[in-house]
Design a protein that fits this description.
About 35% of the residues lie in helices and about 15% in strands. The protein is an alpha/beta fold. It starts with 5 loop residues before the first strand and ends in a 57-residue tail after the last strand. It binds adenosine monophosphate (AMP). The site of adenosine monophosphate has 16 residues, from α3.
């Protein structure tokens, strides 16, 4: 594959251009102003003019960089510029890995197209297909879809992709992680060969480059963030604590800090439910989202959280992927992820689009190996702090030479009352294979 231009963008820029200079039309500028955006983010600054020129784009951008507007705004402008008044075939297809992300992109598309005569809709699994089919029958210009439901409806002859002019693959790395490669390849056989294609991915792995090589034409490569770096604006902190005290600690933090909107990550669905129950019992409104929850429950929880009715959203990694809550002030890793890249995605929920955020991780003895892997990936030590009254106790005797944990069941702490030095085991060497035993929980 030949890449014709490479833009490497510094993550944090001090001088921005204005939206007016990007070549966007008045209805879009009005919608942007209505959203309250004053300056384009780096990815928008580069992507918008390139997409408007009709070029293919391969963009490395994490959630939180403003990538959705980066592809949606020019896409809307292209579609609005050449509309056929009576016919509404699907002219733009946006594929994303999760239902939440799909719903969120639709919300954005509708906000940005408020002053245009463009129709858009979303389809994803886990809900009845008939309302989706009815909307499709009435004609839409833009379809946002998760791969499974898209192919399902296509197989049933309920939609056609033969008029697609612009194809967007969003969070392509996560789609590959989730096993959607075959589905994506199938979609590519259903859209016209002559089209504009935009691929967004948090990282540019070999697999992504291979995928891109197969179906992008002379793409412009845009990198908004260096691979595997954390957002500069996120204030990260580690607290070394005893595992059994984590629930009490997080409840105290939220209450004493009067935190009104906190996203908490657990490794397991069961852990998310348990923590959520504990929070509710202590008087904090909380909801859990994970793969065992129905789509309705997930949507309701997310809406309640966004509206400020629910103070704490407890989520597993896959369920939380792509969730967009503007200016999310606090992210807490109740447990560290066992896949280090997930740490980067998790803390990307805060400090979004220029806002400051705090990402706190509660780390128990058995997670020392995960922390080391994360710091290795980030190539930096995360600052540590102490929570008074909750300092970490002694590590269990077997800990220094322990293998990577095989399951997540709590270990009995030796010193229930704490009082030990939180820093004691910071550098204790747990030698084990960093890449083994990696599994995410949805
Ligand atoms: P995204 O990376 O597309 O998920 O966007 C992250 C968040 O940034 C969303 O809440 C957007 O509404 C917001 N956002 C996108 N572009 C801008 C901008 N130019 N100025 C301020 N906020 C923005």
């Amino acid at each position: 594959m030949e890449f014709i231009i490479i833009y490497k963008l510094p993550f944090h820029k001090t001088i921005y251009m204005s939206f007016d200079s990007l070549g966007l039309s008045d209805p879009l500028l009005k919608a942007i102003a209505k959203k309250g955006y004053t300056t384009p983010s780096p990815i928008q600054e580069k992507c918008i003019p390139i997409v408007l020129q009709g070029k293919d784009v391969l963009a490395s951008a994490q959630t939180g960089t403003g990538k959705t507007a980066g592809f949606t705004l020019p896409l809307l402008q292209i579609l609005a510029g050449a509309q056929t008044p009576n016919k509404r075939p699907i002219r733009a297809l946006i594929i994303t890995p999760t239902r939440e992300l799909a719903a969120q992109i639709l919300e954005n598309v509708r906000e940005y197209s408020i002053f245009l005569k463009i129709k858009s809709t979303v389809i994803f699994g886990g809900v009845k297909q008939s309302p989706q089919v009815n909307t499709l029958r009435n004609g839409v210009d833009i379809l946002i879809a998760t791969p499974g439901r898209l192919l399902d409806l296509q197989d049933q002859g309920l939609l056609s992709l033969r008029d697609v002019e612009i194809l967007v693959l969003d969070e392509a790395d996560r789609m590959l992680d989730m096993g959607f490669l075959r589905d994506i390849k199938k979609v590519l056989t259903l859209v016209p060969a002559k089209r504009q294609t935009l691929l967004f991915s948090a990282t540019f792995s070999k697999d992504i480059k291979k995928l891109a090589g197969g179906f992008l034409t002379n793409p412009v490569l845009v990198e908004a963030t260096p691979e595997n770096t954390t957002a500069e604006k996120v204030n990260q902190k580690i607290y070394h604590v005893d595992k059994v005290k984590k629930r009490a600690i997080i409840i105290q933090m939220i209450k004493e800090g009067d935190w009104q909107q906190t996203l908490v990550f657990t490794r397991t669905k069961h852990g998310a439910n348990k923590l959520c129950e504990k929070m509710q019992k202590s008087g904090i409104t909380a909801a859990a989202i994970h793969g065992n929850k129905t789509q309705g429950a997930r949507t309701k929880a997310l809406a309640g959280f966004k509206a400020g009715e629910i103070r704490v959203l407890v989520a597993t990694d896959i369920a939380a992927r792509g969730i967009d809550i503007p200016l999310l002030p606090h992210v807490v890793n109740f447990e560290l992820p066992n896949v280090p890249e997930d740490y980067v995605h998790r803390i990307g929920r805060t400090g979004r689009a220029g806002a400051n955020g705090i990402a706190i991780s509660l780390v128990s003895h058995d997670e020392a190996v995960y922390l080391r892997d994360i710091e290795k990936l980030l190539k930096q030590k995360i600052p540590t702090g102490i929570i008074e009254g909750f300092e970490q106790g002694e590590a269990p005797a077997e800990d220094p030479n322990a293998k990577r944990p095989q399951n997540h069941s709590p270990r009995k702490p030796r010193n229930k009352n704490g009082g030990g030095n939180w820093n004691r085991n910071k550098n204790s060497g747990n030698r084990s294979n960093s890449n083994s035993n990696r599994r995410r929980s949805d």
